[in-house]
Amino acid sequence: MRNNSLTAADHPNGGFMDIKSTTPLSGLFRTSPFKPVQEHMRVIFSCICCLPPLLDALYREDKEQLSEFADEIKKFESEADYIKQQFRLKMPNTLLLPVDRKDLLSLISDQDRLADLTEDIAKILLYRDMKVPDPLKDTLDELLEGTMEISVAAKDMIERLDELLQVGFRGREQVQVESMIAGVRRSEHNIDGILHRIRKRLFSCEKDMDPVDVVFWYQLIHLIGAISDQAENIGDRLLLFLSK
Q1: pLDDT at 90
Q2: H-helix or E-strand containing 197?
Q3: Distance CA 41, CA 156 (A)
Q4: Owning domain of residue 127
Q5: How many structural domains does the chain have?
Q6: Any idea what the CATH number is for the domain that residue 211 is in?
Q7: CA–CA separation, 128 and 191 (whole Å)
Q8: What are 131-159's pLDDT values in tens digits?
């Protein structure tokens, strides 16, 4: 992985080990229905932030470090699952919500999908001995950088939910969040272009690769690209909140 690739340290709250919360979900609900969603997203973001060092270990063919970061991803994915399950179990039916209860549950499921995709990437790299083909390296760096940027944007949108709640989902905060959603859509469109280029490069070097490796590389590229698709879905979910 080149030095210009993003790492967790380049992002706010990007450290791998500083996300753990000791606040009970019941207490979070008393302050805001969005607090558990934000807590969940912070864990999800920590999970995604393990991707750059995971792929860096792949570049360096360091199987020990690759395994360590795969374990970190699994840990964060499990923590996110626990928060999601507790959210569903402890969300009071009688709670007066500023948004539809069903939409709030769908939002946390959308977020959880980000961790699932990240774990799927880690599993492939953990169980399959793979090397990065030279023709893919530059574009793979570009794809990873775009993926991290759109993940930061998705997290930032979720962090703004409390401010939106305070102003009744109207006014300047609404305009700012709508602008962030539009930015996520533009980023997703740009990532689509990167995905097209990296698939073309993979196609051009297929004949020099193990056929099974080729299949797994197409799958990896798809999974990394799916993270940006899911970030856009989260933006669309928030736009639904603003439109009601």
Answers
A1: 79
A2: helix 171-204
A3: 10
A4: 8-243
A5: 1
A6: 1.20.58.220
A7: 26
A8: 999 999 999 999 999 999 999 999 999 99
